[in-house]
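ARCHIVE CARD
Drawer: 12
Card no.: 0347
Subject: one protein chain, sequence and derived structure
Cross-reference: see card 0346
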Amino acid sequence: MKAFLILANGMVFEGESFGATGVVIGETVFTTGMNGYLETLTDPSYYGQIVTQTFPLIGNYGVIPKDFESGGCHVRGYIVRDMCETPSNFRCEGKLEDWLSSQKIIGLKGIDTRALTKVLRESGVMNGMIVSGESDEAKSVLKALKKPDEKQKILSEIKAYVITDAVKSVTGSAAAVEESASVVFKESAEYRFVPVKSDGTKIYDQKTAMKAGKGKKVVLWDFGAKANIRRELLKRGLEVITVSGLATAKDIMALNPDGIMLSNGPGDPKENVGIISEIKKLIKAKLPIFGICLGHQLLALASGADTEKLKYGHRGPNQPVKYLETGRVYISTQNHGYAVKNDTLPKGAHLSFINTNDGTCEGIIYTKFPAFSVQFHPEACAGPLDTSFLFDDFVKLINSSISSISSREDK
């Protein structure tokens, strides 16, 4: 069955349909991962987007629910060069195409994804429409494309699409795949996803890995959290309480946490005016804070910095970042279309990581209150694991803050 991608600039890519059928509009982006397609599809940060995989063959290890980052699929549409029809993996529980159909996700395969990626790199991320199937709506769109005036109406509709209420739409979606700390560590050890120290060595002993975080409580503020953020916190022995992205500072403080985790999530960070206002209140409380991706951007905005939309964003597990303190370069997984503007950081906020490709902000350390944040994903699955030591740094920040409070109380 034929299917089409219509970009906002008028370009049309013809391919074949897979997954569900119908008509859908979304922000068309690309990700450079060779694997990890299940994590991409179930990452709430992709809400509202039509995702293009630059790697040519997708689906070769099928569907593995244990690898999901949330309870379902969040992309608007999915584009691949070739879809594997015969997946092979000892953990495989089905074909990707069948699962996408069950999730009502419209797919397009058989197009030149390299050509599409070049368009998005040169022109920038733009909206697009996937048309698939024999529905009356699909037939109407395809018929309109042949008439200049009606085609312009279609293009105007595509251009008008905006991702709104993103955090509200995805918060809590990872709850369906949450597991206990003991189960998390056991499965992590089996597949070598145990904590990794800054020197690159792994900790397979559960008691040792959890020692520093035992007895400490962390609130995970869920703006569309990936399940692996919670898992990495649990592996360090921390008690994790997840709260909705719509929670208030008062709600969070009532839980008496030792630290706060600001999660990843979708959309324009500046849309979240209410959340930014609540973060400002938590900053005044001087509780240890660790922000990832959207959480990193929201913390920066609450501190007085500014954000901007990138031309085509950073998406994929092969993004190099430089740790300014040591000069060392790490490979990271990223998924973002916005970035904190380097020259807007307020006093008491210092760059910690930069993207070595374009110099954009990849991390901030705050000195006026106990907090740090990164734009990339240190919890990344299917990897790389290079920067997972940042979760240990969060535990150290919590413990040092507790020691500091105890010292003041003793005096």
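Annotation on reverse: The first strand starts at residue 2 and ends at 7. The chain has a mean pLDDT of 95.
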